[in-house]
Queue: 2 jobs
Job 1
Amino acid sequence: MSLIEVGKTNQVPPGVMKLFQVEGKKILVVNVEGKIYAINGVCTHLGGDLSKGQLEGKIITCPKHGARFDVTTGESVSGPKMAFLQFKTKNETIYGVKIEGESIKIDMP
Ligand code: FES
């Protein structure tokens, strides 16, 4: 495991999410009510770009088929909808976050 600095806290104010490339991975850093979380930025369903999704509180909705994930736990709270059918998808990977001063550091396994 290693802590990698991805950005500064002023880049991700409350209610905002920002995508960072970390070691070839797309990591979405999200500020939920002042606390920073990091979640894989690629949807577990068919690879939708979660950074282009909708964030409401701690829930992010994939722009492709509407799967919803809890950014604090990675849990898939509802699956994608396609042709009026609702499917299931896997939970997202989340990463540990450490704030040091103004720096956002992600714990990469
Ligand atoms: S790619 Fe995200 S819901 Fe289908």
Job 2
Amino acid sequence: MNKIIKKCKVCPIGCELIIFENKSTPSGYTVEGNSCGKGIEFGIKEITEPSRILTGRVLLRNGTIKHLPVKTTGVIPKDKVDEVMKIFNTVEVTGPIKRGDIVIKNILGLGVDVIAARKA
Ligand code: SF4
């Protein structure tokens, strides 16, 4: 039986997921190593529909640094990653910024926000 090991990126705990092919389940896969149910969904999606939590930087005016590190609050489908990164490159925010402030709400209508990864 094939097994694939992936790190769950849904939360900072970062469980090591072991994903097995299993034709007798509806998804065709079984996930082990997850500490919660979100890991199962993430693990199966990584195999069937790869996606990523994205990190990047946007231009910051009037802040303590020139570029503000940002990250998405959820996974971005792989086919949308380039589009999201292009948006990061065009966005400017004005400080002061608190960690967790929303920088882009509902990016590309994906139901995922882009937030500040640090104070600046
Ligand atoms: S499986 Fe659950 S607890 Fe583990 S990293 Fe994923 S979301 Fe976090």
